[in-house]
């Protein structure tokens, strides 16, 4: 799924050329333009947190803490939950949630344009997964809470291990499965926003 790096915020951060700034803004998707317009003073922090989230998620992917799957798996769930937790910690719950929703609305536009999101076109089940994991991340902290990055990482990982997050069901080879364990042919997923992928708890044993 799409990296959380909210590239559109680059138009606000570290730019000295006003023309470049405005050009960047007009390249944004409508949902993200609206978020920036309603949260102009929070945009810079949001961009910094998004960059931090990608770095942390990439590091987690290289360890054995989670399943290394950044497209529908535990690492994907981690990325969204950590992102929302950090956003709430610094920006507050309402602003964090609205940015998460703007991101998912953009995913539908991405699907309509057939752009790749981490190698695959986003779909409805992926957005449902992301929104669920966003809410779980929002529940892990409160605004202004003083905890270290390491402690927050552990909170997110523990929530995943307890089955509080959602992931998309796959076999050992990475093929998507239906809820009754039938392999879904890739040809049946092309061009479809709705499909029969199966959303399951991040720890099916819980």
Short description:
The chain is mainly alpha-helical and 206 residues long. It has helices at residues 18-26, 30-38, 43-61, 74-91, 93-113, 124-138, 149-161, and strands at 166-168, 199-201. It has a two-stranded antiparallel ribbon with strand order 1-2.
Q: Output the number of helix runs.
A: 7
Total number of strands: 2
Low-confidence segments: 4-23
Largest sheet: 2 strands, antiparallel
Oligomer: single chain
User: Overall pLDDT, averaged?
Assistant: 84
Helix content: 40-55%
Please state roughly what percent of the residues sit in beta strands, choosing from under 5%, 5-15%, 15-25%, 25-35%, 35-45% or over 45%.
Answer: under 5%
Topology as H/E string?
HHHHHHHEE
Rg from Cα: 17 Å
Estimate nothing, just give the exact number of structural domains.
1
What general outline do the C-alpha atoms trace? Answer: globular
Query: What structural category do the secondary elements indicate?
Result: mainly alpha
Strand order of the largest sheet: 1-2
Pfam families: DUF6973 (PF22322)
Protein name: DUF6973 domain-containing protein
Signal peptide: 1-18
Domain DUF6973: 34-164
């Amino acid at each position: 799924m799409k990296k959380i790096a909210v590239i559109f915020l680059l138009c606000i951060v570290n730019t000295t050329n006003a023309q470049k700034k405005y050009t960047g803004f007009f390249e944004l998707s409508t949902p993200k333009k609206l978020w920036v317009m309603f949260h102009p003073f929070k945009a810079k922090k949001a961009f910094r947190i998004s960059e931090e989230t990608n770095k942390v998620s990439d590091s987690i992917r290289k360890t054995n803490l989670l399943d290394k799957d950044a497209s529908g798996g535990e690492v994907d769930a981690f990325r969204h939950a950590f992102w929302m937790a950090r956003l709430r910690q610094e920006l507050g719950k309402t602003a964090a949630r609205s940015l998460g929703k703007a991101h998912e609305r953009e995913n539908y536009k991405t699907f309509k344009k057939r752009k790749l999101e981490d190698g695959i076109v986003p779909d409805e089940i992926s957005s449902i997964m992301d929104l669920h994991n966003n809410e779980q991340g929002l529940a892990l902290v409160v605004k202004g809470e003083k905890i270290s990055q390491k402690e927050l990482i552990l909170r997110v990982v523990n929530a995943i291990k307890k089955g509080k997050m959602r992931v998309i069901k796959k076999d050992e080879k990475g093929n998507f499965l239906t809820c009754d364990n039938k392999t879904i042919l890739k040809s049946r997923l092309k061009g479809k926003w709705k499909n029969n992928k199966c959303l399951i708890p991040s720890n099916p044993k819980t």
